[in-house]
Amino acid sequence: MKRASSKRATLTRAAFSALATLGAVMLAACPAQGAQRMIIGTQLEPPVLDPTANPAAAISEVLYGNVYEGLVQFAADGSVLPKLALSWEISSDGLTYLFHLKSGVRFHDGSEFDAAAAKYSLERIVAPGSTNPQRARLQAIRAVEVVDPLTLRVLLSRRSGGLLQSLAFGSAVMVSRSSAMSNAVRPIGTGPFRFLRWRRGDSITLERNPDYAGPTARLSQVTFKFITDPTAAFAALMAGDVDAFANYPAPESFSQFAVDRRFKVFTGTTEMETVLGLNERVAPLSNLLVRRAISYGLDRRAIIDGAMFGYGTPIGSHFPPGNPAYIDLTGMYPHDIAKAKELLAQAGYPHGFSMTLKLPPPSYARRSGEIVAAQLAQIGIRVNIENLEWAQWLDQVYTRHDFDMSIVGHAEPLDYDIYARDDYYFGYSNPEFKALIAALDDSVDASRRKELLQQIQRKLATDAVNGFLFQYPRLDIRNAHAHGIDFDNVLSVVDVTQAYFDDAAQVNHSDELAAAAGIRLPSFRIAGMLFSAGALILLILSARRFGSAYLAGRVAVLAATLLASTAIVFVIVQIVPGDPVRYMMGLQADPATVALMRHELGLDAGPLQRYGSWVGGLLHADFGLSYTYRIPVGALLAERLQVSLPLALYAMLLSTAVAFPSALYAAARRGRLGDSIVSGITQLGLAVPNFWLGMLLVLVFAIALRWVSAGGFPGWEAGFWTGVKALTLPAIALATPQAAILARVLRGALIDILHEDYIRTARAQGVGERRVLLRHALPNALVPVLTILGMQFSFLLAGGVIIENVFFLPGLGRLVFQAIVQRDLIVVQSVVVLLVFAVVMVSFLVELGYVLINPQLRARDP
Question: Given this model, what pLDDT does residue 89 score?
């Protein structure tokens, strides 16, 4: 009777627990009444959150206008509108600007925005040690004066016709003196949203600023989620994980959203001119006739249709079609093969010539390159394509000018002045063009400036400086119930200041709401502590059985291996081409700013000094400072390990749970139908690529059934089971091939052992087949299995970078991939050393496991 009562009590507690869990999940899944939370997908993550320190377009895309504001701002057509400066006056000689500032404005840290704050912000930009990307454009500023709290006077040493446009860039936003130095990780501005959190590799979340000196934002929170893979972007939209996607990266599937009533799409143009860059330092591209022949040989519409699936605007010069000064010059070089061949013959190349086309990674460049090569072949120019990574492209093409042709998009607005630089990678040098740029900078009259801009366009087209292909399209998608998002602006800002959901919206972001509601379950740290405790127990057991001398010897080997690996890794990373500072500062940064940044990062020191500093830091658990994120590398590794380590353990658990029963079943029925079925399934598991399986799982369980999200990781702060749920599909995709390998290895080992003499003796003594298999065969078969498990864990820890991209997980593999692309050398070095340590430690623990599970190995150990 007591047993029955206990059983009923246990069932009652289980039922109550299940109901409580279900209630929590339902609460998390229901949209909060009155809560306006929006999630917007973007392809690029800001490297830092301070636009005054880094020119990356992703910084402005997320923060400009939403968090930071400038004195002025760009209109959609490139003209300048008031912002924190309500109006301004320009003296007749063009040397004095008087700005009248908005009153009642405060920074998010509580400090007041006034003329003194504006003076500090501008002087900080032009200071001698400044690394501001717009420093060169604003060097005409001689002095900044405070007339009164709401009036600012800017004095110039010479006329600067583009001063207002330069002040509209993200690099010229107003910052608070008290918080400017920490803006890279915690941005403080005057905008309608305040910074809430940054989960590096995953998302940035902003919250409404209740003290904003303007119309209050309608959204209470907005999260920008970083999704680099085009397939993952498609899945996130279709599964409802994001409410909009800015600069959608897959034009091939854009039309599918255009006909889906659940979505609204926007098409437009960006500021990015996509050009076939020609190196005029090399023959025959130094010949104007040859360059014009190339222009005649290009069919821009065919390139747009083939590379961009019809999206994009043909251009005939380096100038955006949306600008009021734009003139259409595409008719200057119509596609004319006969004319192109005629010009080549006049230039002395009747039979053509051979050229190399070096292409950076973006898909628009790779696809355009294939089409351009085919088109130029028709006029006799034989093109050999070389695909480069960004670091290689920056080193070979941009820095050393070791190229003939290349295709790249120039995204910075108003960047026609790059053609006036003799050292720029095009190699174009023309005194007449330089005179036009100088005249433009000297003019403040609007009509005169428009005339000069049109002369600049004609000069670039007449000289056929490059093959001008197309203006990169702006493709944006949003939920049909999401309104007020402004995508169409010069700086590609995702302006959510007036964004909102209509009353019919049924938005379900369970992970984010669960985190906001404060649902807390066992954290990742507990799992890490349990794992560490298990390893410690294993070491203690080993010390008791083998003695401290044995363990000390193994630790010495471990230390020597790590030291050798640091030297090898450092040397390899140093000889890889590419300049991290050039990657950070962009193509337009002037040499002085690049040199200052290199000194700030310590990259101007000698290799031995940098290696010594790095190794010395490692001895104190200091991995250094990330060049890209500008935070300690140790903090980055800790963030990413919170995803990668549980994912690796989860995948191992799943693979082991599947492999062991499968192998035991197949070994027990060797040569029969069951064995054949298991062998066939494991063969299929080996043959199916895990990334393809991952996409299939997303299509079925995220898009079709809506059981789980298509990807992303909400963080362990959203709850233990929420985190486990987010890792389930990636773990299955990773575990499937590993389970197949493990099952085949264990099956083979078991079958071999089942033919041993001691197995036949056990059977002769009447031991049952199941006991023979589990008690006698399995322990001896675990030796090769442990080896495989150790290798699999090392692979899963950082080798799942493809899966992490498919499911847009902020893991260790994705971090090291991004660091390699961005030339964040210190991160690459530290991650590799960490992985070496993990591999050596796992191998050490596996060796201990051998002798602990197999007495015969223990007896043979010296």
Answer: 95
Distance CA 728, CA 719 (A): 14
Strand partners, 410: 273
Task: Assess contact for 471 and 313: CB atoms under 8 A.
Answer: yes
Whether the pLDDT of residue 656 is over 60: the answer is yes
Tokens of 553: 């010897």
Judged against a pLDDT cut of 70, whether residue 301 lies above it is answered with yes
Segment 612-650, tens digit of pLDDT:
887 887 777 788 888 878 788 888 888 888 888 889 889
Distances (CA, A) of 805 to 484, 575, 691, 694, 808: 30, 27, 9, 10, 5
What contacts 175, CB < 8 A, 6 or more positions away?
A: 52, 68, 107, 117, 120, 121, 124, 183, 188, 189
- 99's tokens: 């700005």
**Closest among 695, 665, 682, 693 to 739, alpha carbons compared:** 682
Partners of residue 467 on adjacent β-strands: 276
> What is the C-alpha to C-alpha distance for residues 632 and 802, in angstroms, rounded to an integer?
26
Separation between Cα atoms, residue 639 and residue 123, nearest integer Å: 36
- Asked whether 253 and 237 are in contact (CB, 8 A), the reply is no
* pLDDT, tens only, 405-462: 999 999 888 899 999 998 899 999 999 999 999 999 999 888 999 999 999 999 999 9
Give the CA count within 13 Å in the CB-facing half-sphere of 790: 21
Residues in the chain: 862
- Is the sign of the CA dihedral 594, 599, 605, 607 positive or negative? negative
- Rounded to the nearest 5 degrees, what angle is found at the Cα of 801, between the Cα atoms of 797 and 805? 135
**CA–CA dist 159, 163 (Å, integer):** 9
Question: Which among 786, 249, 765, 695 is positioned nearest to 474, based on CA atoms?
Answer: 249
Query: What is the token pair recorded at 693?
Result: 């399986």
Measure the CA–CA gap between 302 and 306, rounded to whole angstroms. 6
Q: 300 is written with which tokens?
A: 């821009």
CA-based nearest residue to 851, from 543, 633, 401: 543
CB-CB contact of 491 with 60 (8 Å): yes
pLDDT in tens, 596-611: 777 777 777 777 887 8
Contacts of 214 (CB under 8 A, 6+ apart): 192
- Paired tokens of 763: 């059977």
Cross-strand partners of 207: 194, 221
Is residue 601 classed as helix, strand or coil in its secondary structure?
A: coil
- Residues 262/455, Cβ–Cβ less than 8 Å: no
In terms of Cα–Cα distance, which of 424, 430, 406 is closest to 358?
A: 406
* Complete DSSP assignment for 524-536: HHHHHHHHHHHHH
Closest CA to 413 of 347, 325, 304, 297: 325
Report percent pLDDT > 70 for the chain: 85
Instruction: Work out the number of other CB atoms within 10 angstroms of the CB of residue 350.
Output: 11
CA distances 147 to 96, 98, 144, 704, 757, Å, are 13, 9, 10, 63, 99
- Quickly list H helices, 273-362: 288-297, 300-308, 337-346
Please say whether the beta carbons of 203 and 179 come within 8 A.
no
Q: Percent of the chain having pLDDT more than 90?
A: 46
Query: Highest mean pLDDT: which of 41-45, 115-119, 394-398, 627-631?
Result: 115-119
Mean pLDDT confidence for 757-769: 71
Report residue 645 as tokens.
């380590």
Tokens of 624: 């250094």
Which DSSP string corresponds to 429-469? --HHHHHHHHHHHH---HHHHHHHHHHHHHHHHHTT-SEEE
Number of H helices, E strands in the chain: 30, 19
Name 396's Cβ contacts closer than 8 Å, sequence gap at least 6. Answer: 358, 388, 402, 403, 577
Instruction: Output the CA–CA distances (angstroms, integers) from residue 153 to 89, 149, 172, 342, 427, in the order listed.
Output: 10, 11, 16, 58, 39
